[in-house]
Write a structure and sequence with these properties.
This protein is of the alpha+beta class. It has two domains: 102 residues, D-3-phosphoglycerate dehydrogenase, domain 3 (60s Ribosomal Protein L30, Chain: A), CATH 3.30.1330; 269 residues, no CATH class. Helix 13 runs parallel beside helix 15. Keywords: 4Fe-4S, Gluconeogenesis, Iron, Iron-sulfur, Lyase, Metal-binding. It catalyses: L-serine = pyruvate + NH4(+).
Length: 401
């Protein structure tokens, strides 16, 4: 598996695959060809179909500036991934290079041809079964396992990530008004937070707090604000909501939240390695489902559950998002994405609670690795209309005038 540094990235919304990935690709190409005078970009598949709402053309044009760039939007997919593009590099009227590049989820990119590079493998183990066997055999914790592979200074990186997550929550809770785009969607996180403060019933109050935190980050993301991919921009509200809730309502210290973040990230890394975290590839089960599994594992660790029960919580978090479609209305990461983050954060809490209560009554028969495999197969079977193309589902029925 790759480093978790490739999973948690600080960047700007609204989409890790449609905004952050193309921006990284354009930056690299611009650095490689400083003599270029202009660019033409063919956006393919999901990048073409929802690129406008996800600001794909905007971020590429901004990155290549001041050199001009024009675009072609082509609905057919390139062979390697639904999020593909071909960048034509020109010097005057002469085409210097055609570069095929894919945005494969979570802001990660993959170049084809002579620019292709093999990802750096940091972990020797690739499945949760292998990881759990290793830590049991060596008598170490999951957090010690992460540091063993990432390096002792990795806690500093995680501290920065946690800080960026908390900043995105707090920024979102301060803001009011409309989110950019044709949907004219109103920000509600601040009002939800105020409702939570004024709610007497403890159970309702706690769930409102978590929801308001998830909405705060998701609204920031939808408006192009700074967030952390966890594992993607579209699902960036779930992990911060659970962690911020643990900090503010449960009074868990940051040094322990850093460890909890590492545990959640480990499960996200397994999904990224063996399944997919791309909505264009696997539907929203790959984004919100993975984030829910990560947050469930995080919460289970906070509950001081053993490794088997942490896996159980993560398995439930992903299992009960199987088949979740990605159908953003108008190509914006707003409806149903923001609400889904709030719902996903509550599901993560419930998964950890169920693992805590049920895990000691009977052994879970379904492994996390099994659910990752099923999620990947389910994603392959989903129609492309339900994988970040805005051609089916809610996006089709809602309509925009």
């Amino acid at each position: 598996m790759e480093s978790m540094r490739e999973l948690f990235k600080v960047g700007f919304g609204p989409s890790s695959s449609h905004t952050m990935g193309p921006q990284r690709a354009a930056l690299k190409i611009k650095e490689m060809y400083p003599e270029a005078t202009r660019f033409h970009v063919d956006l393919h598949g999901s990048l073409a179909l929802t690129g406008k709402g996800h600001l794909t053309d905007y971020i590429i044009e901004k990155t290549f500036a001041p050199k001009p760039v024009d675009f072609s939007f082509k609905s057919e997919e390139l062979p390697e991934h639904p999020n593909g593009m071909i960048v034509h590099v020109f010097q005057g009227d002469q085409e210097m290079k055609q570069i095929e590049v894919y945005s494969i989820g979570g802001g990660s990119i993959l170049f084809k041809g002579d620019l292709a590079q093999e990802p750096v493998q940091v972990y020797k183990q690739n499945t949760m079964k292998e990881i759990l066997h290793y830590v049991d055999e060596h008598g170490i914790s999951l957090y010690d396992y992460v540091l063993e592979n990432e390096g002792d200074d990795f806690d500093h990186f995680l501290s920065d990530i946690l800080g960026a997550m908390f900043e995105s929550v707090e920024n979102g809770l301060k803001k009011e008004g409309l989110i950019q785009g044709k949907l004219k969607l109103k920000r509600v996180a601040k009002s939800m937070f105020q409702q939570a403060q004024n709610t007497r019933r403890e159970a309702d109050r706690e769930r409102l707090f978590i929801s308001s935190y998830a909405y705060a980050v998701s609204e920031e993301n939808a408006d192009g604000g700074k967030i952390v991919t966890a594992p993607t921009c579209g699902a960036s509200g779930i992990m911060p909501a659970v962690l911020y809730y643990c900090y503010k309502q449960l009074h868990i210290e940051k040094k322990d939240l850093i460890k909890a973040l590492a545990i959640g990230g480990l499960f996200g890394n397994v999904v990224k390695t063996n399944g997919t975290i791309s909505g264009a590839d696997g539907g929203c089960q790959a984004e919100v489902g993975t984030a829910c599994a990560m947050a469930a594992a995080t919460m289970a660790w906070i509950y001081e559950l053993n490794n088997s029960l942490i896996e159980y919580a993560a398995e439930m978090g992903l299992e009960h998002n199987l088949g979740l479609t990605c159908d953003p209305v108008g190509g914006y990461v707003q409806i149903p994405c923001i609400e889904r983050n709030g719902y996903g954060s509550l599901r993560a809490l419930d998964a950890a609670m169920l693992a805590k209560q049920l895990g000691y009554l009977r052994k879970n028969k379904v492994s996390f690795d099994t659910i990752v495999k099923v999620m990947k197969e389910t994603g392959k079977d989903l129609s492309s209309d339900y994988k970040e193309t805005s051609l089916g589902g809610l996006a089709k029925e809602f309509g925009l005038s």
